[in-house]
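Hey, resending since the last one bounced:
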Amino acid sequence: MTPIHRYQRFKLQKEGSGNCRGRSTLEGHLRSDKKTHAVKEDHVLRRRFSLCSGLATPQKIDPRKLTRNSSFGGYNGISPLTPDSEMENNGFSALTDEVTSTPISSSKSDSKLYNGYNKDCVSHISKLTKKESLKVQKKNYRQEKKRASKEMLSALKDPSVVVMEDWLKIRGTLKSWTRFWCVLKPGVLLIYKTPNNGQWVGTILLNTCELIERPSKKDGFCFKLFHPLDQSIWAVKGPKGENVGSITQPLPSSYLIFRAASESDGRCWMDALELALRCSSLLKRSTVKDGDLNNSMDATQSGLYSLLRGFSPTHQECFDSSNAELASHIHYKDVDMYSDKSDRENDPRHDELENDTIDKSSRSEESDTDLSEIQGEMSRKDPPETTYMVEDSEDFGEIGETTQAETVTEENKSLMWTVLKQLRPGMDLSRVVLPTFILEPRSFLDKLSDYYYHADLLSQAALEDNAYSRMKQVLRWYLSGFYKKPKGLKKPYNPILGETFRCYWCHPKTDSRTFYIAEQVSHHPPISAFYISNRKDNFCISGSILARSKFYGNSMSAILDGKAQLRFLNRHEDYIITMPYAHCKGLLYGTLTLEMGGKITIECEKTQYKAELEFKLKPFLGGSDAVNQIAGKITLGEETQATLEGHWDRDVYIHEKNAGFSAKFWSVTSEIRKQRLVRHVVCLEEQDDFESERLWQQVTRAIKNRDQEQATLEKFILEEAQRKAAKERNDKHEEWVSRLFQQDVVTKNWRYKFTDVSPWDPTNDIIQFEKDGIIQTNTRHKSITFKSTDVISNSSQTRRQASVQEYIGCKTSDYPAPKGSQNTESSCSTPEPVQDDSSDEAKAKRTQPPWAPPPEVKQPELRLYNSLTRRKEIFRPQNGKRVLWYCCGPTVYDASHMGHARSYISFDILRRILMNYFKYDVFYCMNITDVDDKIIKRARQNHLFEQYKEKTLPPIQLLQDISEALKSFSVKFAETTDPDKKQMLQKVNQAVESSLKSLEEAMQQALSNGEITKRAKLLLDDSKDMLSDWLDVQFGSQVTDNSIFSTLPKYWEGEYHKDMDALNVLPADVLTRVSEYVPEIVQFVKQVVDNGYGYVSNGSVYFDTVKFDSSEKHSYAKLVPEAVGDQKALHEGEGDLSISADRLSEKHSPNDFALWKASKPGEPSWDSPWGKGRPGWHIECSAMAGSILGESMDIHGGGFDLRFPHHDNELAQSEAYFENDHWVRYFLHTGHLTIAGCKMSKSLKNFITIKDALNANTGRQLRLAFLMHSWKDTLDYSSNTMESAVQYEKFLNEFFLNVKDILRSPTDITGQYERWQEQELTLNNRFYEKKTAVHKALCDNIDTHTVMEELRSLVSQCNTYTAAKKSNKQLPNRMLLRSIALYLTEMLKIFGAIEGEEPIGFPVGRGSQSLNVETTIMPYLKVLSGFRENVRQIAREKKVSEVLQLCDDVRDDILPELGVRFEDHEGLPTVVKFVDRETLLKEREEKKKIEEEKKRKKEEAAQKKREQEAAKLAKMKIPPSELFRSEKDKYSKFDDNGFPTHDAEGKELSKGQTKKLRKLYEVQEERYNEYLRTLQNSSTN
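The structure tokens again:
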């Protein structure tokens, strides 16, 4: 134990009740005035370190008065048994009394500090000769000096020394106060943002400071630390080598002003600081020259040293002088060391001393305290680790496919054929015994370690600050594990159950070790678990692999199922890694070749980076360059950052997408091979019987000796022993238990039992080592829990649990030391057992044991895909749980279509989940665009077309007008470049021309007026769009009635609201209309102009994108920067009425857009400072959202196609108005909607209205379809999509109906709670897992697709459970199924898929009375069901089929008309379900169709059978002699029996042909004879 904890016994304690938070407080001796206190404290410290050179002059000590003291220097310390009066005056005695339970008596005669003896003590030493006594005294003297120096150095390096710590307020340079967590140590004051040493802010060097109390007007107590010469008081580095502290308000450099909460706390801090200020001199003395300390400890462990070395030159000089003083102390020897001549003569260095000068005679070449020795003892306690040795040299295969192909000898081919005969395609080879000639002489567990010869790449990755660079480094490490190939095609041994393998790699650059532990944890299926750890370099890997092999005929694949989890301990990042498969071809024919194949991923959920690699198999016609190819990419969210391609055993190249360059990413060169880390393996002598090398040594020896028979025999012995052990376990009903790994009961993943994922602490951790498969860390300090006696506090006696270090200086009889407590400097991190005190006194003092909360489980945070960053971001609203949300609403000029439903149902789902699941307070604002170019144009066209129709012009005039319209339409068609739009216009043109031709023919043929009028009306209808467009061009400017422009949007807005209500979309909290916010829009535009980002041109106002983008605090097109300059998109955003040549010429830049448009004739207008005009399209959202939500909102939503230019322009003009860069925090865009795979567009007339969709499906089914797809991805609206939604609804509904029926089963109130068995526990665990998975999916960008799949899986497991119970004639557990059904119902209510207050399932029927209907009618239906069941039972017993048929008619025909379904189950009560009448009738029709289809197929099968029998009979009637005579085209000659002898060309038939024909002849002869027998039998009867 180190004496560093002497400071801990100074309890900085308030004199009144209560004490400030801290590890220790001063008691007693800090109660006098400051001057006396300082003198006393200084004296105590001088006496305490009186053996240290430079601190005090050593006193003349009578060796005979020395005795051993157990209360001063630790358990092995030396000091006086009783302190003298001087020590009592200084408070030392009081301190000892408070810490120890037994007071120590004081004697004036024993007042000196001695090294081991008291003159009044009688011992055998007093009987020794003077010479011998002097030797003993000198020995004790040297030991005491060495101990004191060692204690001082150890004390100053111990990280657990804390004089005091608590919250203090510190005043910054801006005169504002901020709370910081302050930790006071000897010589330094550490400042953090949070407790537990989190977020270091800075370090104050107390040896540069003065302390003074400061008056304060406010409550509390102020004091000031300052440098008297206005120099910096800050250290330049942190306690762990940090270069930059956390960002806070600016703090002064030469002083700090602190404020404590109360005067008592402040006084307590003042006293503690005075003590720490005096301890700062000790801190300087503890450091050494660069050549000593840094050689004995890691650079990261010398934070305190580098901290002191990092300030101004003045301080540096002081520091260097301290080093010199300490060095002189360490090599100092007292003059009286050799006061006896005989001692000097006996010393072997006497001659050297004789030759020294007189000045040097007081010194000796021998040093009592060698610093390197002390440092070694403190940090080099060799742990009892496993003995390792460097492995033999590695064997590498050649680059390319040379080593991946092998020619099999004939002998081995026969062995392979023997094995292949036992196989069939698709068979798993895990149970197949393979020949030994294909075995690589090492275990699969050993083979898995090949990935870690370049583990230093992971060490470098852990140091990378950039997440992208870390991912690339991880990917390099991943590729480094493949290029080592065995010579030839070899497969490692299949590990034996319980087999283990361990090794490690040395990292010369970081002086660390990467340990590898693997164990075979399952035999069938074969699962290998592994754990890799290098805590010093801050990474570990864990995982398990299920090795499977599949046979495909001429090839086979070795598939490695499983995932590895790489964790960077210092960053709390996890990377999930998968493995490729090995593919071997040429088993039956061709060259035997081995390749890697498959797609793998490396994914980090925290950073959202993901790497994908595809290992490509060689194509059939590929050359050597096609071998071992890989291709892949690195993505961030949905965006690709880089692509990779090359060969995994040669060169891999990366193309950086953003930077636009390519470079070599990984290359397997001789230099790379030289950089492989050296692997160390366990000595064979130390391996246990189940370690890989020892276990397989006989097989390995035989394979290396090329003795296949012996290898096969030895392999069989091992496998037979494994089978025998498995059989014995089965007979005893025992399960095999892994020694090093355990399986998670929830995730089923295998985890290392001794996993340590805490980041490396250089101030405490010394070395990582392994013993018996357990990876441990040797540490300097540990807390050992054992029983403690009472400690007196101010108010009452309290009990506390303490570490061993707190009792240094107490009597060992009072506090028994635990086993191994003397090894505190380098103790193992595994806690030691506690010694029990079973005495009556200990029992009397026994209190409650300590309690600790369970470890914190990291919960997923909600992340949303933010279009501003194009990746998933953690969702943090600006105002706590309040969310401000603006959504772009519809432009109401036509019927709402499924594209609108795509956005508004999706946003409704997101809104409901945020409100009802995540419990956010969402304020939802949406606009209605009722002033827009499209509305103006459509309103004018409708008005002009209706006027045209009312004129009832003669057909000849109609033909002329439409012909003119066709000419204009042809020009428009020719100018159109969009192929989809061109196709739509062509269809319109064809329809008009067809109707036009029909009317012309009727007039030419002089058909009746009725027929001509009919055809004219048809032409008018077909040409409505074309004619309206022509009329608008001709007469649009003459429309002056502004009511025309408000009637159209008002009507379609009403229809929109009806559609949203039918879709169960929640109404917005605030609905804004453009026509109602024109004054606000005008003011908004005016402010943008005043801010310098807008300009007036010909009465219109435009936004200056160039001016805005050139501003330092603004950026144009944040969402889609690559779209800047897309004139097509910009023109669509401006509108059809605003892209004429005169309008475009008004802009300073083509990218500028209109804020305010000067109205032309035929357009609505409002007054403004710039004249009559109307708002631009983009400005409306900015002005209305700004008016309601203010200068910044949390969420802005809209369709994907609105990103540019609409939303980018919204952002620009709003940030120009508010002069900020955060108008929107999260931009959400719903995905496109396609119609059966085709693009949906109203302008292309390729759309389905919401009303049409609701005619085909219910609103719930549409919502379920949307829930089953991601809200941000493209959704294809098709029959397949809707059928999936319908089936999902039916699937859930059936489950709810079944649960309702189970809950209706009669029972008393206590009978509802059945006993839980294994099935219930399993289902409940699955229930919890699914809820966890649902929560994780909702946090992951509200992934409703995954949620719906998890809910489907949960229902399937419930159905399986229910079916198993019913098959055993048991009732399912009511409460469990009820809990699951309630959860499912609640989730569907949150999603908006269930309305009403129905506790379980979908509501029955329509209206709010559905719940009452079911509860009211169900008792009567249960009576009817019971009566019917009794009637059916009697009818079955009496065999009255008519009654049974009547019962079936009630079930199948009558009750479905009433919305009731009866389900009969053999041996169980009839299930009664309330279902929609339409659903039941539809089911009945489908059932009838199925029965009719079965009947039809049955009749077709019977007819086919009759035809086959007729054909067979007809064939039987043919005599054999006539069988071939009809085939004149094949045969020309026959014998007497009608058998052919020559072919059609006259050639004689060959023997082979004759043989085949003879068989046919004989078969026909047998058939004919059978026919004759049939005739004969029939005639006899």
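The chain is about 40% helix and 20% strand.

Sorry for the duplicate.
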